[in-house]
Design a protein that fits this description.
heterotrimer, A alpha/beta, B mainly alpha, C mainly alpha, B: mainly alpha, ABC transporter involved in vitamin B12 uptake, BtuC, two-stranded antiparallel ribbon, 4 strands, globular, C: mainly alpha, 16 helices, cell membrane (chain C), membrane (chain C), Branched-chain amino acid ABC transporter, permease protein (chain C), ABC_transp_permease (chain C), transmembrane (chain C)
Chain lengths: 237, 328, 352
């Protein structure tokens, strides 16, 4: 059974219908990559899974349980973490306070905290700094760190490489690889090189519909398919 | 701007205002009286405005009926004080204080209860609809004012003060009213309490985070609605407390009190910036000092001066002096 | 039948009644009611231009209404009661309104709607305080009483019969009062028609696009702030003109008739009851509210007397408490019929 199953998900925002019958399965373990051009509906998909937009009834099941229509906070408690496109950092709070809010009861599990420090040493260094003063890459690290400070089953990450320097992207990739050994990641990405290096399974969304699903290896091998689905929008990797 | 911010930035504004006023007024004794009056008034207005600011910051809800809490607080406190009239006149500080504590407590409890009702019945159905929100809370304000009129009548109500808060102490040539000093201290105490709540507790952390980014707080697994009703009740209770203290300050109150304070409270939150209690305190003190200084120098311009101040500050900083950080 | 047509028929019948009201209802009070309805239709329609068509909530509408009224009042008082001074007064009122509207608009329309509401509220209360404090100019709390153009004086004979007495048509005396009434009626009808044209023009379409989706309208390339400021100025000008007309009719201008917060609440009630964003709703809302103001109080008086023996009820039913009931009705309306009377009729019919 797959970890997360999206079946025929429609989403409307206001009077605009954005997603039409989106369907894909995220198996347990590894990184699942959602590709597609700007405005195709990738971010909307993640937000709908998280309950931040309303998905059509019965369209999202997590570990076999229907979560469409649940309150966002309840979806989070099921073990799904969310790293939004804007990172969702609380700038007026310190790094420590940001992290404390991500814990279930205000206390850190020391082993997990140590792991966060190992993955992202900068966070330990700036632990008591206000989050708005961090660099873009450090903010992204904080956003990911918040998602892994408690045990989770699935992390939704929206375009983590946007606007980051190549060296930081590489470090981020390293971190994701390590995280995905324990926790499934559903990654939305525009940077195909980055996505290719991490993804095990993948789907392509276009114009609010899933137009392709498969393994990343097959997709990478089929350049013709890549060109057809992505050439208009993405820098080929 | 960078330099300015490093040294406390806009928070020096009241000091600058006080220095300018000192030069213009000329007489140090009058200046001291006015400054103390301004500071105590500022803290009372802070109490009235803080809830409005937090509620807006957290949920994007602007309650135009907020001043109803102020009015109800004032009238409830006045009634309780009148009921304990005998205690107030006595020489026993204990009885005096008890009556005062009862009055303020009654206002606070009433404010919190009314806040609960307001949030559940009036505001909740129109969370995300600004237009209807403004209209409905405005309607609620009308109803609240009419209920006050029906309950307490239209004529001015006398507010007895506790004996030990009567009179003034003389410092040099200036006389400082005891009640004002009391209001200042109590207001400062509440500010301190709020500061600790917001900065040292988990609930406070959640409120601050929620003001910045409500969705992310929910995505971390917290129900913000529950938090919100708490904040709403807290804000209403504080407004009622401010109203209660204001009643003692004015000693005569009319049902028009709410509408009068609403304008000042709005100017305060606009100047201070919505969503942060530091900003609200700053706005309240700036507005109150301005009101007192200009009231002394050019009485007719007092309210207009605050309006002009608001315009200037908005031109300089469209979101007020010290708003909460919003990442959205 | 199409809902829009139903609404239009209702509104046009009201205009028709207003047209003939001096002949239909022959007493002093009715003609006051009719004139007030006409003026408030314009005031409410201009407010609808803001709230209904652009989603701007302003509490400064009475301020502009007041500018227009005080313009006429001060000109007539300081100068004399000729058309020349009248024009000066009207122009001054309109000009001040337009300038203040531009200032407020540019300053604050770029911030959130809710900020705008607060700022206009603050501005309006300052105007109210200034009007009562600058008493040498505005007459303070007492306001200004003045005489108007001679053609509007009740003693003026508009038409005379063979004997040189004032002519009666259908028992109505053709005197200055009639002239004044028809001056109010025609001015208001023209202003209302002009606003209908604005809503139907391309400008109206743009405004609705902005209201529906501001970000999108901005994306398409509309300069949202500029458009909003323009509408704010148009609405302010219309309100000022309505004020000038009302001042000419009343021969008195004071804080209570033009600037007070109570009138702002009246306008809000009228626009919501009538139906926001319909223009025609303004006619229905203004008519119902003005009628209620004049007649509901009488009714409540009766109810209060009838329940005298009961506790609390007479207090709540006293005519002084009529705003309490209006407030409750208002809240219920915003909950259950946010589209107002006109909007609800249009929707109901559209569904069928």
């Amino acid at each position: 059974m797959s970890l997360l199953s999206i079946q025929n998900m429609d989403v409307s925002i206001g009077q605009y219908s954005v997603l039409h019958g989106v369907t894909f399965d995220v198996p347990e373990g590894g990184v699942f990559v959602l590709l597609g051009r700007n405005g195709a509906g990738k971010t909307t998909t993640l937000r709908a899974i998280m309950g931040l937009w309303q998905p059509s009834p019965g369209s999202v099941s997590f570990r076999g349980e229907q979560i469409a229509g649940m309150h966002t906070s309840d979806i989070a408690k099921k073990g799904i973490a969310f790293v939004p496109e804007n990172m969702g950092i609380f700038g007026g709070l310190t790094v420590a306070e940001n992290m404390v809010l991500a814990t279930a009861n205000g206390k850190f599990d020391q082993t997990r905290l140590k792991r966060v420090y190992e993955l992202f040493p900068a966070l330990e260094q700036f632990w008591d700094k206000q989050a708005w003063s961090l660099s873009g890459g450090q903010k992204q690290m904080l956003a990911v760190a918040r998602a892994i400070i408690e045990p989770r089953d699935l992390i939704l990450i929206d375009e983590p490489t946007k606007g980051l320097a190549p060296s930081i992207i590489a470090a981020m990739g390293e971190a994701f690889r390590e995280i995905s050994a324990q926790t499934t990641i559903l990654l939305v990405e525009q940077n195909f090189a980055f996505a290719k290096s991490l993804g095990r399974d993948m789907a392509v969304i276009d114009d609010g519909r899933v137009v392709h699903t498969g393994t990343m290896a097959d997709f990478v091998a089929d350049t013709e398919l890549q060109n057809r689905l992505l050439s208009l929008s993405m820098e080929a990797g | 701007m960078g330099m300015l911010d490093r040294f406390g930035g806009v928070f020096w504004l009241p000091v600058i205002l006080a220095i300018i006023a000192f030069v213009l007024i000329g007489a140090p004794s009058s200046w001291l009286t006015l400054t103390v009056a301004g500071l105590s008034m500022g803290l009372m207005i802070f109490l009235m405005a803080s809830g409005l600011s937090l509620v807006f910051g957290l949920m994007d809800v602007l309650n135009f009926g907020h001043s109803a809490f102020v009015s109800f607080g004032a009238f409830v406190a006045a009634s309780v004080l009148a009921y304990f009239g005998g205690w107030l006149g006595s020489d026993s500080i204990l009885l005096n204080s008890l009556a005062l504590v009862f009055a303020i407590a009654a206002a606070v409890v009433f404010g919190a209860a009314l806040g609960w009702f307001f949030e559940r019945v009036i505001v909740k159905p129109v969370y995300s609809d600004h237009l209807r929100q403004i209209l409905i809370t405005m309607g609620a304000l009308i109803v609240a004012e009419q209920l006050i009129l029906a309950t307490w009548g239209g004529s001015p109500v006398n507010v007895p003060r506790p004996h030990f808060l009567e009179g003034a102490i003389i410092v040099g040539n200036s006389s400082l009213e005891v009640y004002r000093l009391f209001a200042f201290c109590l207001g400062a105490l509440v500010y301190g309490g709020l500061f600790v709540l917001l900065n040292r507790t988990r609930m406070g952390l959640l409120i601050r985070a929620g003001v910045e980014n409500r969705e992310m707080v929910e995505a971390l697994g917290f129900k913000i609605d529950r938090l919100f009703i708490g904040v709403f009740m807290l804000g209403s209770a504080l407004a009622a407390m401010g109203g209660a203290m204001w009643a003692g300050y004015e000693t005569i109150i009319t049902p028009a009190l709410g509408a009068e304070m609403m304008v000042i409270v709005f100017i305060v939150v606009i100047i201070g910036g919505l969503g942060s209690i530091q900003g609200t305190l700053l706005g309240a003190i700036v507005v109150a000092l301005m009101q007192n200084y200009v009231g002394f120098l050019a009485p007719k311009l007092a309210l207009a001066s605050n309006m002009i101040l608001m315009m200037v500050i908005l031109l300089w900083r469209p979101y007020g002096l010290a708003p909460a950080v919003k990442i959205k | 039948m199409n809902g829009k047509i139903t609404v239009k028929i209702i509104a046009l019948s009201i205009w028709g009644l207003l047209l003939f009201s001096p002949f239909l209802f022959q007493d002093v009070r009715q003609i006051e009611v009719a004139a007030r309805i006409a003026v408030f239709i314009v005031l409410v329609a201009s407010y609808d231009l803001l709230i209904g068509y652009t989603g701007i909530v302003s509490f400064a509408h009475t301020m502009f209404f007041g500018f227009g009224a005080y313009g006429v009042a001060i000109a007539m008082k300081q100068g004399d009661s000729t058309w020349g001074y009248w024009m000066v007064g009207v122009l001054a009122g309109v000009l001040v309104s337009a300038i203040v509207a531009v200032l407020i608009g540019l300053l604050s329309l770029r911030v959130k709607a809710i900020f705008f509401a607060m700022i206009t509220l603050a501005a309006a209360s300052v105007a109210l305080v200034l009007a009562s404090q600058l008493s040498s100019f505005t007459g303070g709390e007492d306001g200004i009483t003045y005489s108007v153009q001679s053609i509007f004086k009740p003693a003026t004979k508009l038409l005379t019969d063979d004997e040189g007495k004032v002519l009666r048509i259908m028992d109505v005396r053709m005197n200055g009062k009639i002239a004044a009434y028809y001056f109010v009626f025609i001015s208001c009808a023209v202003l209302f028609w002009a606003m209908l044209r604005i809503v139907a023009s391309p400008l109206g379409t743009v405004l609705q696009a902005i209201r529906e989706n501001e970000a999108r309208a901005e994306g398409i390339g509309y300069r949202v702030v500029a458009y909003r400021t323009a509408v704010f100025v148009i609405a302010a000008t219309a309100a000022a003109l309505a004020g000038a007309v009302y001042a000419t009719w009343l021969k008195y201008t004071g804080p209570d008739t033009t600037l007070s917060f109570a009138i702002m609440i009246d306008i809000l009630l009228m626009v919501v009851i009538g139906g926001m964003g319909t223009m025609w709703g303004a006619v229905i809302g203004a008519t119902l509210m003005v009628m209620a103001q004049y007649y509901l109080r009488d009714l409540m008086e009766v109810a209060a007397n009838a329940t005298e023996a009961l506790p609390l009820l007479p207090d709540l039913l006293s005519p002084d408490r009529w705003l309490l009931w209006l407030g409750i009705i208002f809240i219920l309306l915003v909950y259950f019929f946010p589209a107002g009377i006109a909007g609800t009729i249009i929707q109901r019919r559209a569904v069928k």
